[in-house]
Amino acid sequence: MMENNMNPIPQTAEGKAKSVRIFYAADVTDALVDELKADIASEKGIALSVKNKDGEFKFVLTAYGESEEEARLKALAVSVKVRSALGDAIYTEEEKGIEQVVVDLLKEQGKTVATAESCTAGLLSKRLTDVKGSSDVFSMGIAAYSADIKSKVLGVPKEIIDEKGTVSREVAESMATNVRRISDCTYGIGITGVAGESYEDKPSGLVYVSLCDGDNMWTKELNVDVDVEDARTAVRNTSATVALDMLRRTLLGIGEAVAVGGIIFDNDSKQEKPATTHSGLSFVESAVKSADEAGLVDDGIILPADEIHLSYEQVDAAMFIRPETEEPEQLDFNFELDGDEEVQDFEISATAPIIVEEAVAE
Questions:
Q1: Cα(78)–Cα(191) distance, integer angstroms
Q2: Is the dihedral of CA 98, 100, 101, 103 positive or negative?
Q3: In CATH, which superfamily holds the domain spanning 98-278?
Q4: Largest separation between any pair of C-alpha atoms in the chain
């Protein structure tokens, strides 16, 4: 477990109340954490801690205020920055593991998965089947530790193993393809790598994770940090986490992001294409539309779907300060109600332009 406490708040800056928001993310780079750290550092009365356990990150955002409402609104405002920075890396804001998220998605979409594992030796299968009801979506797992089993059971061509070695992109892709074929599942996952001492002239920590859906192949090359206590466990756990995150992203339709830092290979065209990263805002893309329709998107301020029930005044209080002399604009709806008459079609027009508030500069 590695824990980094960022932006500690001096005692004098803490208010009487606090509000905590938690974000769980996977496969986050050190550069992204540093970028988020620098962004949050400018916020007053905010503390952010980050825990990284083998590729699974827990971001704890704490906001302090003189009242519970002030702290809550401050946390809401800063959480926009967190979501924007982490984007698709966030897999939940609830107390549940990424394997639970993946199993839930598979169930919702009526899809299945099978695994073929070498260096993880069945760890990915275990994490999936630890989830209640996983039998509906998990078909089989093969721990193909030796080269012979990879060839005889999974059908990995011997010539590929002889030419590329068991720890290679080609072997991982063949494992994923063949376990999917054998199981007749929607997805096949193949993992091969070096968790212990260097092997086949390949360094410890080198892992290839492949995901196949029958039409496309996504492969990611990992170089897990082995300069840690119990490096063997760290390599295995990190590899399983990345595999789960690749599947999660594919189920969410952001498949091209699974191979950031790796390779995307299209089985039909037999062509490789560069991996792409997605905007941080893609995580709340659907919420942006809903929030915009609800009048809760203004000047780049975006609220997540679970918070668009907040009134504009509450959001405004967190994000903006109105000039004291400003009077609210009146809208002329161009119709009058007479008794119990039904309202006919009408047009809404403003008698004056609506003022856009200025963001507070701290």
A1: 38
A2: positive
A3: CinA-like (3.90.950.20)
A4: 88
Q: Measured in whole angstroms, how far is the alpha carbon of residue 37 from the centre of its chain?
A: 18
Using alpha carbons, list the distances in angstroms from residue 282 to 35, 160, 205, 315.
18, 38, 31, 21
Q: Residue 117 and residue 209: Cα distance in Å, rounded?
A: 9
Owner of token pair 């698709």: 88
The full set of domain ranges for the chain reads 2-94, 98-278
Q: Which residues pair with 262 in a beta bridge?
A: none
Q: Give the Å distances, CA to CA, from 2 to 30, 49, 208, 330.
A: 12, 11, 24, 55
Spatial distance between the Cα atoms of 340 and 150, rounded to a whole number of angstroms: 79
* pTM score, whole prediction: 0.71
Residue 27 CB: number of other CB atoms within 10 A? 26
φ/ψ region of 245 (left if φ > 0, alpha if ψ in -120 to 50, else beta) reads alpha
Q: What sign does the dihedral 278-283-286-291 (CA atoms) show? A: negative
- Which tokens belong to 286? 């659907």
Contact 358, 320 (CB under 8 A): yes
In the beta sheet, which residues pair with residue 258?
none
Q: What is the pLDDT of residues 295-345, one digit of tens each?
A: 333 333 444 434 433 433 443 343 333 334 444 444 444 444 444 544 444
Is residue 106 pLDDT above 70, yes or no?
yes
CB 63 within 8 A of CB 71: yes
pLDDT at residue 1, rounded to an integer:
33
Q: What angle do CA 21, 124, 282 make, to 5 degrees?
A: 40
**Which CATH class, in words, describes the domain spanning 2-94?**
alpha beta
Distance, in Å, from the CA atom of 52 to the CA atom of 156, rounded to the nearest integer, reads: 35
